[in-house]
Design a protein that fits this description.
The structure holds two protein chains of two kinds. By secondary structure, chain A is α/β, with parallel strands linked by helices. Helix content of chain A is 43%, strand content 17%. In chain B, the strands form two sheets. Chain B has a two-stranded antiparallel ribbon. Classes of the chains: A alpha/beta, B mainly alpha.
């Protein structure tokens, strides 16, 4: 009996001593004192099929965080980024975000680029009341997961519409074929939005084929599309497949332009596709040669540190990190619900990719979109869609390699720092 | 009709690469009853050797693509993969020769992961552009378009399959190989150096994988450390389809998979491409459990 009592007492004692403390620590971190560092989680595709997405975003985030820390951090605390690699896989994204929240106890989560991966991780952040900001997932379903999920970029209905308008109204192309990556929420969503507007404009979708991310042979689908004689092929996939698709289309004697969305954005796009991509179009979040001071300053800092030009994913990563830190500062705490409210109230935040004001659906209002064309292995600005300036307005002149021409296509960006 | 011929041609070109990889699976299985899952990754290493060698040669021998450069690159890839195949067998599989077969199978999966993720570490995880070894020309046969690449793939694949066929059925070493595959213990009792035969089989298979890797890099010039997984899997299916352990079966299986993929990919069911390839495999195995060319051997009691 005595032994039994001892066991019980020990059990209760150990529960009290060792069972509770983790909870108290959590509350301590949650209320956000002024001591210790703030840990922000980041998950991204650092390896795998879409590796440059994750690497660029990571560079953008680190650039922002290092600037913030060297300026003294936020609310007297330094910010540390805990980065996890999801290998460009949705199931990995879910498990690394789970780990970031339960083991690293991060206050908020930044990521992903690919919509399927963001969609896998978002419910976990929502359930744990940790705000998540996706820098560049454009599928509209991502922020619909719940009120803790935010985004820094425009959404696919907007992007699909812009491309359909540009191809039909500006370029007067009336017959489009669509080639979709069926494994990607991004690709299927963007294709549907494109088709809707293209048909509404009076155009025809003459052919529709699909592939699965990671395929390397697209000749069969392209052969079928060739038979439908389209003026343009809309391929809303990711950069690593686009190059191959373009090369194989040219091999089959198909010379019409290809067009796509921001999934094309990568330093690897032209490296893989080469000449086959000449004359192709895609929509993007910003143009690296934009003469606006905010972009110039960012490009300069980024090049100095990483020795390469930042793509739009780096710019959005940079913006999301700064928006998050700004919200932490305004909230004065890192507690989930309060931080969430602070992020939701983000208004007129001056970012590299434009002025950021989050709407009630947690998507930014009125973000600019640019249409780029690949010309001589360079990206040339063809069009700017700026809701603030009242819809689509063709760029005055295609911006060349130099920014010295000063042909600012839009002046909607507030340049107050 | 034009589309039909075009798809057939595309299918044969893709299928001959599958066939080259499938030969490696089938030879190793024939001899050791081991599915060498690392084989698809040896193929990847072949591509990467081609990538580095091709870029090096382009820098030092001038930028113009030339047949000599292509031959040197191919040879280098074959040598590196041969060494890799040899070491793989020597270090990972030989110590397990008398262990239960499942142990070597799991080791094979381990070696495969080692090469894939080691590859990501060494080469970097991002996709790379395979250098243009030979000038590409588009050839048009009355509407059916092909490139000289597809013809080269087909030609090189046929030549190497011919060489393999000769080695297996026309040389003394081939006879030893067939004896080992027939009965491992008896062959060693008859004085056949089984270890050496097995090593050489691995080397031969890896050389074919290297050739496939270079041809693949030429046709689909985006390479990355995980590129071996899907072609490896499809080639494995091809080997099973043709009757695993059977050399002509692997070739036919590879071509069948390639052509079926091309036709399904060009139809309205293009998003079921992989599924249909595997359904065909299941159907064939239901009626011919040992594959198209395999011999059905009832278990002896």
């Amino acid at each position: 009996m005595k032994k039994f009592l001892t066991t019980i007492t020990t059990a209760i004692l150990s529960l009290v001593l060792f069972g509770c403390p983790p909870k108290t620590t959590e509350t301590a971190t949650g209320t956000g004192g002024t001591e210790g560092e703030i840990v922000v989680g980041e998950y991204g595709s650092l390896t795998g099929a879409e590796a440059t997405f994750g690497l660029s975003t990571h560079n953008g985030i680190m650039l922002a965080m290092d600037e913030i820390n060297s300026a003294g951090g936020v609310n007297g605390r330094k910010v540390r980024v805990q980065t996890e690699d999801d290998q460009s896989k949705a199931e990995e994204a879910a498990s690394v975000v789970q780990k970031l929240i339960s083991q690293n106890n991060v206050v908020a989560v930044l990521g992903e680029v690919a919509s399927s991966n963001s969609l896998a991780a978002a419910p976990i952040c929502q359930a744990n009341q940790r705000p998540m900001i996706t820098p560049s997932s454009t599928n509209e379903k991502v922020t619909q997961v719940g009120d803790y999920i935010f985004r820094m970029c425009f959404i696919d209905p907007y992007q699909g519409e812009a491309m359909a308008n540009y191809l039909y109204k500006t370029l007067k192309l009336t017959k489009a074929a669509v080639l979709i990556d069926v494994k990607s929420d991004y690709s299927t969503g963007l294709a549907a939005n494109f088709e809707r507007t293209f048909i509404a404009n009076g155009g025809r979708i003459v052919g529709k084929q699909s592939y699965a991310k990671g395929d390397s042979d697209f000749r069969a689908q392209l052969t079928t599309l060739k038979g439908t004689a389209p003026d343009v092929i809309f391929v809303p996939g990711y950069y690593n497949d686009i190059g191959q698709i373009a090369i194989q289309a040219r091999d089959l004697g198909m010379n019409m332009p290809l067009a796509g969305g921001d999934g094309w954005e990568s330093p690897k796009l032209i490296e893989i596709g080469g000449k086959a991509l000449e004359g192709c179009f895609y929509s993007n979040h910003y143009h690296v040669d934009d003469p606006s001071p905010a972009v110039r300053e960012f490009v300069q800092k980024y090049e100095a540190r990483f020795g390469a030009k930042p793509d739009s994913l780096a710019a959005l990563g940079y913006d999301s990190a700064r928006v998050l830190v700004d919200a932490i500062k305004r909230a004065g705490t890192t507690e989930g619900p309060k931080l969430r409210d602070a992020i939701a109230q983000t208004k007129n935040f001056s970012g590299v990719t434009g002025n950021i004001t989050l709407g009630p659906d947690r998507n930014p209002i009125g973000k600019k979109l640019v249409v780029l064309q690949i010309q001589n292995g360079q990206l040339a600005l063809k069009d700017v869609v700026d809701p603030a300036a009242g819809g689509a307005a063709p760029a005055a002149a295609a911006a060349g390699d130099t920014s010295s021409t000063g042909n600012a296509p839009s002046t909607a960006t507030a340049r107050t720092n | 009709m034009q589309t039909l011929l075009q798809n057939l041609l595309n299918g044969i070109a893709a299928g001959s690469i599958y066939a080259l990889i499938a030969l490696g699976y089938t030879m190793v299985y024939g001899i050791l009853k081991l599915i060498n899952f690392a084989h698809g990754d040896v193929f990847m290493i072949g591509s990467f050797v081609g990538f580095y060698a091709g870029n090096y040669l382009a820098k030092h021998n001038g930028d113009a693509p030339s047949a000599v450069n292509a031959a040197i690159v191919m040879l280098l890839a074959m040598i590196v993969c041969a060494i890799l195949g040899f070491l793989n067998e020597r270090i990972a599989y030989r110590p397990l020769r008398n262990a239960p077969r499942i142990a070597s199978l799991i080791t094979a999966i381990g070696v495969s992961f080692l090469l894939e993720y080691g590859g990501q570490f060494v080469f970097g995880p991002d996709p790379k552009f395979f250098p243009t070894l030979i000038e590409k020309n588009v050839i048009n046969f009355g509407g059916v378009v092909t490139t000289n690449y597809q013809l080269i793939v087909l030609g090189v694949a046929i030549v190497f399959m011919g060489i393999l066929q000769y080695i297996v059925y026309g040389t003394k070493f081939g006879r030893a190989m067939r004896a080992v595959s027939f009965n491992f213990e008896t062959a060693s009792l008859m004085g056949i150096p089984t270890d050496r035969v097995i090593s050489t089989t691995f080397i031969l298979g890896s050389i074919l994988a290297a050739v496939a890797g270079i041809l693949y890099g030429l046709s689909y010039p985006k390479i990355d450390p995980l590129m071996g997984i899907m072609p490896g899997l499809k080639a494995f299916v091809a080997a099973v389809l043709g009757g695993i352990g059977n050399v002509p079966g692997a070739v036919v299986g590879g071509l069948v998979i390639g052509i079926v993929e091309a036709f399904v990919g060009g139809s309205q069911f293009s998003n079921y491409r992989d599924a249909i390839a595997f359904i065909i495999l299941i159907v064939i195995l239901l009626f011919r459990p040992s594959g198209l060319f395999g011999k059905y051997e009832p278990e002896k009691v």
